[in-house]
Write a structure and sequence with these properties.
Elements (H helix, E strand, L loop, with lengths): L2 E6 L5 H10 L7 E8 L2 E8 L2 H4 L2 H5 L5 E7 L15 E3 L5 E9 L2 H12 L8 H17 L6 H14 L2 E9 L3 E6 L8 E5 L4 E4 L2 H5 L3 E6 L4 E6 L4 E5 L11 H6 L5 E2 L2 E2 H19 L7 E4 L5 H11 L7 E3 L19 H4 E3 L8 E6 L6 H12 L4 E6 L27 H8 L3 E4 L2 H9 L11 H4 L9 H8 L22
Amino acid sequence: MCGIVGVVSNAPVNQLLYDALLLLQHRGQDAAGIVTLQQRKFFMHKAKGMVRDVFRTRNMRALPGDVGLGQVRYPTAGNAYSEEEAQPFYVNAPFGIVLVHNGNLTNAHALRAELFSTDHRHTNTESDSEVLLNVLAHEIDRATRGGALTSATLFEAVRNVHKRLRGSYAVVALIAGHGLLAFRDPYGIRPLALGRGADGTVMVASESVALEGSGHVFERNIAPGEAVFVDLQGQVHSEQCADSPTLNPCIFEFVYLARPDSVLDGISVYQARLNLGETLAKRVVSTVPPNEIDVIIPIPESSRPSATQLAHLLGIPYREGFVKNRYVGRTFIMPGQGVRKKSVRQKLNVIGSEFKGRNVLLVDDSIVRGTTSREIVQMARDAGARKVYLASAAPPVRFPNVYGIDMPTKDELVAHDRTVEEIRELIGCDALIYQDVDAMKRAIGSINPKLDGFDASCFDGVYVTGDIDTEAITRMNGNRPRIEETEEDSSRLALPNLS
């Protein structure tokens, strides 16, 4: 999962791209990059770190041009600590192309070999995004056949790209001297939206919040399989480039990943989380009598809407019992010191008066590894709670995600091959209540009945692209980001809900 944005304007876009990336920062905190185009020359700056740290005044001044794109990176493949794997990626032929990508290719290994042996193209990193860029560049070269680039030839290239790629991909590419190309995989797993500014600026971005927060009006979502080309005059050309597209967005976007003020594929993320709280209420009542719960407390941040709705429906007081420390820095390893892993207690602090002597129902948006949940439950007990119940607005996460979320291998998932009672014992709570898979799909899907379904593979084990088996998962796990022992794990799911 990453955040991507592209802009075609009639004024400098460096500040606009920076602002949009800040609005997408929740989608990735590992690295950030911006490329701008002036005449036929690209100007690029990218580095590891948060947007505010990567871009200084001198960097912004070195990014001239009225067209550009940017990305905030969340590593799901390759080397999480390589500066070279920060995006955007660049190839000089044909024309000169830079690209940013949100998602994960499930056939990157085979494509990399194919690029070398058949297409005679070289990739220099372990990133699947560089593979995607080279496939796109090769297909554009084939479509133009040394001639002029038009929207028709671009759409032909994207059609051929769709035939070669497997997995999830929302893509924005900039072609020197021509304009901006955006397209989405045929299942629409990762989001991509289109908007316009009052001055004629055209923007595409991962979430509607990046459009609206930067002064643009959301126009529509880019459809699964669709390609959109925005020329340098701001004219928008679009075409469906997939044979049988279906809309199956990743349901985890609504559970956790996206900002609550975004609308993805016609679904308000905030409303989706309210609905999850409503269906969760029925599960809670069947497990713990409401008169045995004194207070409902969310685990910040994504669970708040679900917890609010749950408390309202059960008639139980809603309280804030945890305060996040947003300024926890990295761990520095000094000579003679061992590695010190950051505790949840450094990121969350309890308000003791909300726990002491009470039966507390904690609400989380999801439970992945379970280690964070166990520590939070113990924090509630240490603060004086009589009983600690835990409710998850999402069903048990039992399967790895292969479409761009760094879900652990199945053996690292607390719910894999365990009953709810076994998970409860591991976490240490007095009762554990999970959302139901079908209820989750109905709760979110009811907001937009036009959806064909969801990718809910981490919950139900059904992979919508149809090419995933145990061997494929094992191969992709071998290419998960390498986390060195002396470094902080910056992925959002390393400590769920605490970033």
